[in-house]
Amino acid sequence: MPVPERGETFLIGPSSAKYRHYLLMPSLFQDYAPESFFDEVFSAPGQVRPHYEAVVQAVDRMTPEEFASKQLGADAAFLKQGVTFTVYGDDQGTERIFPFDLMPRIIPSAEWAHIEAGLIQRITALNLFLHDVYHAQHIINDGTIDRESVETASHFRQAFRGVKVPHNIYVHICGTDLVRDDQGVYHVLEDNGRCPSGASYLLENRQAMKRALPNLLHSLPVRPVDTYGSLLRETLAHLAPPGVIDPVIVVLTPGVFNSAYFEHAYLARQMGVPIVEGRDLIMRGDCVFMRTTKGLVQVHVIYRRIDDDFLDPLVFREDSLLGVPGLVESYRKGCVALANSIGTGVADDKAVYAYVPKMIKYYLDQDPILPNVHTFLGTEEAERSHIVANLDKLVVKAVNESGGYGMLMGPTSTEAERDEFKRRILAHPRNYIAQPVLQLSRHPVFMEDHFEGRHIDLRPYILSGEQTKVLPGGLTRVALRKGSLVVNSSQGGGSKDTWVLWDEEDPSATALPNV
Amino acid sequence: MLSRVADCIYWMARYVERAENLTRLLLANRQLILDAGAAGGNEDAFWRPLLISTGDEEGYFKLHGEVTGDQVSEYLAESRSNPNSILNCIRAARENARMIRDQLSDEIWQCLNDIHLYLGSPRSSRQRQNDPNAFYEQILTASYLFQGIARSTVCRGENWMFLQIGTYLERADKTSRLVDACSGLPLTMAPSPGAAPLRWASLLHSCSAYSDFREISTKPDPVRILDFLFLSEEFPRSVRFCLNEVDRALIQLRPLQSRGATSDPLRESGKLRSELDFTTVEEIIQEGVHQFIDRLQTRLNSLGLSIFQTFILYADLLPIDAPVAATAIFPGAWHDGSGEDERQQQQQQQQ
Predict the structure, then answer these.
(1) Structural domain that includes position B76
(2) CA B42 – CA B47 distance, rounded (Å)
(3) Distance between CA atoms of residues A460 and A450, nearest Å
(4) Which is nearest to B2 in space by CA: B146, B159, B229?
(5) In the list A237, B127, B314, B323, which could disulfide-bond B135, CB 3.0-4.6 Å?
(6) Beta carbons within 10 angstroms of residue B259's beta carbon
(7) What Cα–Cα distance (Å) separates residue B84 from each residue in A91, B15, B16, B92, B126?
(8) pTM for the structure as a whole
(9) Nearest-CA neighbor of A404 among A173, A78, A177?
């Protein structure tokens, strides 16, 4: 056995007063200032929150050089393994790694239980909502949500009304973005119910931690995340047409030029299923087949990572080179299942988002466990005036953009940008919403030789199959630019591994986890 | 196995083999020039044959006015505008591997990714200029590593068969092209140390055949060299050996062949193999070495196309009257960027 390096082994003792004193001035955190934000690690300067003590102690035993070399090692491993995303508009086919910060984000078990309950409540309501708006539309007819908000959502698919989907589940894979405000309260920022991405980075981040800081990971009761592949497979298998015992599942990718191709291939591999492109699939009768060297093989479930618009040139965009002609008809007839279903984008539309608390009340008769961020709608006259008058204080978002595009960050915007948004909002009020600028919580992030606070969010993944399950972990995204509140990878964001802890009081946690 | 996956594996193997052969050719040529003494100063005489045997003469002269050693090595090794440069071959091999990443062992992927990252780095360009041997050896090592990892990690199912077919078809093609560059030389033994024996020796080097050939003949007798490189049953780079391997893989894939296929690769490979089994080097010389190679290459191409139609295109799925030319461009494996398709792929929102 190799001799442990300095910083790799340590003991976790009870947090004695002596130790606390020592923690007051850890060297790597010497000048670390939580400032006025909610800091995940420090409740006050030098005061470490209890669930972070072990990590802070361990990190502090390393010199800046040691920590930096571990960080470099992790980056090099990502590049070597091709855990990258493609940068568009670069003919050299440049691939970048998604910047990764070694210091983990930790969520205690009680906090996680709250998040988990809130997410399950929310996705349950969203699936009921989707079923409703594509069938009887009670929620609209009862006046809880106005028809216009729903039917003008750009991802609402009128053509898909009345179609029965397996088990009435629409969103099988959801990646909900959570943020904490300056009091540490978790809010839902948005629901990503079409093709949420990032799960592969979550899994690779854990692998990176296992390589870089194995003893640290081992010393805490961290819940494993590597069950994601089998959970995802179970979720998809649940959708198979009735009577199919061993369904053929595939991942449908746009192709190797898509920025998330790595993820598509990675998830296919984790599940042990083929990754296909549209051109690999062919219709025979009402069924979908894939072309193999042995002939045609029927496909039962498709985890598709292409947009609705490109799925089927016979139904949606006829210039699509990525889809399969006839696929939608086959789905309608129940010969093949799609995950996520068609038209789920109406539920993650940023204007419809404002109604989710009402949906939870309407369908479940419950109060939302996780609150929304207060949202001003461009369609409501009073709220629109408020938006236009307060552009310098608000975040304005285009309702059908994602990835941090089409956004105005009021406080840091220029006069010209605000004028431009004002013009656009007044011209197309349905396309915009605004929210107060939330002072997202911060987390120490390693910067060359010390830690600095950066804003973070959290994207957990919720799988709805026979049961609804939340993977105990998530992708913690970091806005790496100082002061920035935008965490998207396309806008200079990075990520961290997220450690959800077992409840140590819970006797089942000390036994081998049921994985 | 998905047809497209088979296509990717086949091309991945071909591109790795292509890069390896090109590397050895460049390395052997550098040796040849050093051995040639004063005559080595005539750059055109020593570097033009390389462009001829790789078929890159036309592309080269679009960029350069004259043949110089530096420019030819740069063009063949590192040029981004030469689709067949070592750099682009490795890139294509690696892109094909990326498309089927889920089918490959991590080791195979990392091996290709490592050499790809090396070739794209400023370090590799510097090394090629300052220490060319180290540069070329790095690529050779990567190729050997690739073959070795494949041998020890790939299941002997379809993956392996398509890997074998790609590797050996490419190798047969390249060996014949390398020989072709010498086909104009006199076949009688010239008194040493004339340039001709050096060229024949260099041919052996570029086919990695030098020491094996020495076991059967101490003198670089051109006729025996031709015999060795075309017809040896045992030497793993001879054309005959390569076609035997292709044939063997095709026999194992046989149960997959669909009845309605418009072409039968096994029939073609069998014919080609038996011709090489029963041909003598004298007959080849009588036909003319160059003519023989020409005919051989046409048949190798046709074999490649027939494999494509049978396993990849799955020809019996297409309307019988579909013109082959139109279907042959069915995009399967990765070769180079492709306009509208690429744009739409990028457009897909990943939230």
Answers:
(1) 1-154
(2) 9
(3) 28
(4) B159
(5) B127
(6) 5
(7) 17, 9, 11, 10, 21
(8) 0.87
(9) A177
DSSP 8-class letter at A90? -
Within 8 A by CB and 6+ apart from A92, the residues are: B120
Cα–Cα distance for residue pair A440/A46, rounded to 1 Å: 20
Å between A236 CA and nearest CA of chain B = 18
Q: Using a CB-CB distance cutoff of 8 angstroms, which residues of chain A are in contact with residue B346?
A: 88, 254, 257-259
- Under an 8 A CB cutoff, do B102 and A348 touch? no
Q: What is the pLDDT of residue A125?
A: 98
For A21-30, A54-63, B18-27, B100-109, which range has the lowest pLDDT when averaged over its residues?
Answer: A21-30
> A251 pLDDT exceeds 70?
yes
Domains in chain A with CATH codes:
17-107+200-221+461-510 (no CATH), 376-436 (3.30.1490.270)
User: How far lies B177's CA from each of A53, B209, B295, in Å?
Assistant: 67, 15, 12
Q: Could you say which of A276, A279, A294 has the minimum Cβ distance to residue B331? A: A279
Q: Please report, in angstroms and rounded to a whole number, the separation of the first and last CA atoms in chain B.
A: 30
Q: A258, B350: Cβ pair inside 8 Å?
A: yes
Same domain, B163 and B149: no
Average pLDDT of the segment spanning A389-408: 85
Least trusted range by pLDDT, from A95-99, A218-222, A351-355, A449-453? A95-99
Q: What is the ipTM of this complex?
A: 0.82
In this predicted structure, what is the pLDDT of residue B193?
Answer: 53
Same domain, yes or no: B166 and B82: no
pLDDT at B256: 61
> Are B84 and B43 contained in the same domain?
yes
Question: Do B143 and B103 share a structural domain?
Answer: yes
Does residue A323 belong to the interface with chain B, where contact is any CB pair within 8 Å?
A: no
pLDDT digits (tens, 9 = 90+) for B101-118: 988 999 999 999 999 999
Among A80, A196, A274, the residue with its CB nearest the CB of B351 is A196
User: B238 in a domain, yes or no?
Assistant: yes
Give me the amino acid identity at A12. I
Cα–Cα distance for residue pair A175/A457, rounded to 1 Å:
12
Identify the burial level of B111 via C-beta atoms within 10 angstroms of its C-beta, where 0-12 means exposed, 13-18 middle and 19 or more buried.
buried
Picking from A186-190, A193-197, B343-347, which range would have the lowest pLDDT averaged per residue?
B343-347
Q: CB under 8 Å to A250, separation ≥6 — which residues? A: A268, A273, A274, A275, A276, A290, A299, A301, A302, A303
| B12 and B149 co-located in one domain | yes
d(CA A242, CA A122): 28
- Mean pLDDT over A268-281 rounds to 93
Q: Are B28 and B185 in contact (CB under 8 A)?
A: no
A79, B344: Cβ pair inside 8 Å? no
B163 and B66 in a common domain: no
CA distance B93 to B99: 10
A307 to chain B: nearest residue by CA?
A: B348
**Do A474 and A498 contact (CB within 8 A), yes or no?**
yes
Read off the pLDDT band of A6 (50, 70, 90).
very low
DSSP B186-213: -SSPPPTTSHHHHHHHHHHHHTT-HHHH
The owner of tokens 């050896």 is B137
Report the candidate in A29, A28, A64 with the shortest Cα–Cα distance to residue A47: A29
User: Considering only CA atoms, which of A15, A449, A277 is closest in space to residue B333?
Assistant: A277
Euclidean distance between the first and the last CA atom of chain A, given in angstroms as a whole number: 28
Q: Say if residues B11 and B333 touch (Cβ distance below 8 Å).
A: yes
Cβ of B348 within 8 Å of Cβ of A280? The answer is no
Q: What is the DSSP string of A38-51?
A: -BSSEEETTEE-GG
Listed in sequence order, the residues at least 6 apart from A386 whose beta carbon sits closer than 8 Å to its beta carbon are A376, A434
